[in-house]
Write a structure and sequence with these properties.
Four copies of one chain form a homotetramer. Chain A contains seven helices and 18 strands. Chain A is of the alpha+beta class. In chain A, α1 crosses α3, α3 packs across α7 and α5 packs antiparallel against α7. β11 of chain A pairs antiparallel with β11 of chain B.
């Protein structure tokens, strides 16, 4: 089924596998007249790139993005923008043993049953490498949003059992876990390192904050801004939960405590995460994604082979002991893609 | 923007307001040949109905559903099924004072800014009454799913700070909070009652379990089953968070603990909530929705009027002190709508 | 398959059968703030109505449209507008004999094979009565377009072998065949009358002209304005061909004759029918639809019954000897629905 | 606006310009398990290729298609198939003079007004070169259809005023105009040659016949098979009219002559072009597209420049004096894309 597109007005279609010739994205619906800032785009790509620090996989990928269409002299023409990232240096032989067994926590089993075959090289299209295409497209979305005063910042609020307790935006890109709390960041790095040495992995939580979103974005009943954000973030590999504003904590609250009072200058609190009735209310839009621990671990796991016989597996290879810090730019990109669609939406009133 | 449809193959379009002449749904894509079980449909409607118990609003609505098209002698013809629920007995004068002030926690402010006007009678289309149309459509979806052996059960796992600790499916419909733990249920009822007397309200968590889902439902990359569920559930009024399987708890877990081992007879645990790589794995599909406390409370709240001046508001009227029990059939309906779309999806392989 | 919606931004979903309780349409995406002109809407409905003249079916249908949602005090709210037309006075017993045989030229055979059953009463959903819903929705589209200076006029250019040779817009609604050439109109009426007496029927051509369309409507590559018009018009019952501007005549022309020269004040001819590269060029948009002769005739026809045995059929009942004049408002409505989607489209440039 | 995709289940998204680095297509929704026949694909590409005969442009383009994703060992995986055609040897300097004037009959004027800028090199994305991507995707669609016994043949029925009078399928690819009537073909070649020498161009008509289409393809009311075909064919550059079966001729016919009688072994004639009520009836599906004469001619034409001042233009360059023969594989591809979507559609009945 056609299921590789996201967005209605700024519509992306991604393609490509981890170890094939390349992967990329077609953006359809980007307005004409935008001078694409390639430095900004490369910066976002670098934030997602493997091998950027000791808490990520030591695999190194260049992720050079080339624009094949939709621009003249660097300016968008209104026509589809195809961006292609050629793969290079992938070592497919690492995956030979995976041909016959299903990795727990991976798409191996389900995709093979669904499609009757699967691309074992690096997980094929189920690889997190697909998110490179999202980040590339998201960067252009962010550039359109920035023109309207909308900025998007993501950070890590939790890794394993360590929870950030402060928010200093300047701190985020200063540490390799992208945590806005320097102390927590240091402990997060240690915790990841410890798990890495055990051959194990950790999960965590990414929070994305969009500031400058005007009142009125999002569309009832089924295209609510929060529903779209949940959809967007849950589509990211390894995300298992999404919440808006107070989120799950609101379940144990009361109406009198959870309702955000309204004053002449705006809302006096933001339990709603910037969204009421599915429509933005002018406060920062706040979404959080729970990311499960990396499935690929260097511990022996119980599984089966393609014939259904019991098998033991140690995945091996070079994997992220914690993918959460690299998840930050991906989650930001998905939020940007949701918001740019609101920016381009048809008028709600005459 | 056209935003009142949900689903691709079994596509619903809902319409109507709380206090207008009526509300309803058009189902487009229901296959021909299904004899609609109207008793089953009415049963689901009754579960969502206001006035069903002392923990819900004392407003009474009949919610009689009439089918206007798409059937001959009770059998679906493959053409659009329009179901209409006429409104009756709504008392619009209760809402006069709301014309001039915005209720905290409601869509009043955002929708009025977005559309330039709003239907103040009962919240208009932002009313939870819209979910009646979802339940009606969801019932037909469930009937199609049941033919394939898929069953859907929802229950309340938390209200306020009270958390269910047991799961006895038979218990769910025996208590008015729809909790599978009888002891917790009794305490939940008490807690709601206490808050009702204070003029306050409580939130909670609904869990929906789909059993019998075959391996292979859901479509990478952007139409993942979990992403679709998150989208569906987050579109329900008052839902502020969605998680699949271990959900947010997986953020503080490790790969070795969170990965579900695979044995010859299937998965040995279900942290994945039945979904890997966005595709069902044959285990029960498990999703949870966090529902915020009812916004309409009988306590004085700080707000503003349409001119931006400070105002105080006590909503009054007859509202649910806790909408979570009535949210169960709504969340079930949304899960059914997601799953029936998977049932009807084009073939993934030749 | 979900296939009863049309349009992306001003999206209609129609439902209902000829002889069921009623039929109607949900409009999703109409902007808030439009005061619906119900007189204008009823005027369009009357133009489509059966029984309006001796060249149409003598069946009389009231086609009263009631708005069930999406307005407050007659003003659109931005939420779905459901319009319902109750059926009354249909005589289903006329259709008893059709239960067992397939009418040539009708959807009987194909729909029964596709769906496994069919609604024989009045053709069910295949009835041209479905177009009443299009006209109702189209009227609101026209009201939005009129605000932008876009007007839509349809007329009959051919019935049988009689071709209009003059264009006097004032003449169109003065004669019962809606022909802009009074002399041709008189001969068309005679021709229809002659065929009616024979129990036979005639086809013809409807031309729709949209004036005031600004430069820039329509979207390459697959949402070209001409492609959308072709899709819209070909979806109307009995339409078997669509052409834009010079249309089929351009096939026998030359580039030097067919290209429209451009002068400082605009195009000097309009072979392009107002569309170049799929985008409007500021000239009148001109589309024509070829309508086949009414399939229901009072002549004996060769067919088969549901068992595949040969059968003879004389349809009987009260049918239009020529549906072309009543097709005018329907074709206008479809053009309006295409154009309003262009009006509401996202911006093409920043 | 996102407008570069076609199809719902076998969904293509095309990108790229005539003189940029390349162009291509992403196919989303092709089922897994198809071994792509690259020879068949190249054969179709060669039929569309410029420079294939003296009646086409002497420009030579290789149109080598490379598959970048979605296959393993030549077998489709169910994931997006990206096919890229690199551009080479385009001479952009030919287009310098077009920077300042609008070519009559081209998209120059409308696209520049719509987008605020345009890619003048070879017409950018408005170039017929985009159809190479359609043909590549269409070839894979045809391969899926062939497995179900559906075959698609296109031929030229008219060029200028010369009309084919015989149909010998074997003849079509024997002559350079793809006409099934050898005598007419010879005269067509002469006529094109004559116009080429004058610096002028000719139009014509392409007919596409799909055999083996089972009863039941196409979906009422707005996704009728004929409506989809009209949409698909009208989206092809230079097409100004589409008709199904008897098409425009049915306008001057009568019901008794136009209705196709039904016998025990099927329909006894095919005025319906294989479609009744928007659904295929088992007869060959027959569609025709009217193609206007090539707009680029070597005659002086009256136009304006970007400042609105009168200008004279002789396009120059190497253009097809008649694009109709090369339009055959393009029209076939579009019909294939429509039909493969029917093949993959969800079930109409349970």
């Amino acid at each position: 089924m056609a299921s590789n597109s996201f967005g209605r007005f700024f519509r992306i279609t991604t393609f490509g596998e981890s170890h094939g010739p390349g992967l990329g994205v077609v953006i359809d619906g980007c307005p004409a007249g935008l001078t694409i800032d390639m430095d900004a785009l490369r910066y976002e790509m670098a934030r997602r790139r493997p091998g950027q620090s000791k808490v990520t996989t030591p695999r190194s990928e260049d992720d050079d993005v080339r624009i094949w269409s939709g621009t003249v002299d660097g300016v968008t023409t209104g026509h589809p923008i195809m961006m292609l990232i050629e793969n290079q240096g992938q070592k497919s032989h690492h995956y030979d043993k995976l041909k016959t067994v299903y990795r727990p926590g991976h798409a191996d089993f389900t995709w093979e049953k669904k499609y009757g075959l699967r691309d074992v090289r690096g997980g094929g299209r189920s690889s997190a490498r697909e998110t490179a295409a999202r980040v590339a497209a998201g960067s252009i979305a962010r550039q359109l949003l920035a023109r309207e005063g909308v900025s998007i910042v993501g950070h890590v609020t939790q890794i394993g059992t360590i929870v950030a307790e402060k928010f200093d935006a300047d701190e985020i890109e200063r540490n390799i876990v992208r945590c806005a709390d320097a102390d927590a960041a240091a402990r997060m790095v240690e915790a990841i390192d410890a798990k890495r040495k055990e051959g194990d992995s950790l999960g965590g939580i990414v929070e994305v904050i969009a500031e400058g979103v005007p009142v009125g974005w999002g569309d009832p009943i089924y295209e609510k801004l929060d529903a779209r954000l949940a959809y967007a973030l849950m589509s990211v590999n390894a995300v298992k939960g999404v919440e808006i504003g107070a989120g799950f904590a609101s379940a144990s609250s009361t109406g009198s405590a959870n309702n955000d009072p309204i004053g002449p200058d705006g809302f006096l609190s933001n339990n709603a995460g910037g969204i009421l009735g599915g429509v933005s209310n002018g406060m920062p839009v706040v979404a959080r994604a729970a990311i499960k621990p990396t499935s690929s671990i260097n511990k022996t796991q119980q599984t089966i082979d393609a014939d259904g016989n019991p098998a033991e597996l140690e995945v091996g290879g070079r994997h992220d002991p914690c993918v959460v810090p690299r998840g930050v730019p991906v989650c930001e990109a998905m939020v940007a893609l949701v918001l740019v669609d609101c920016l381009l939406a048809p008028p709600a009133k005459i």
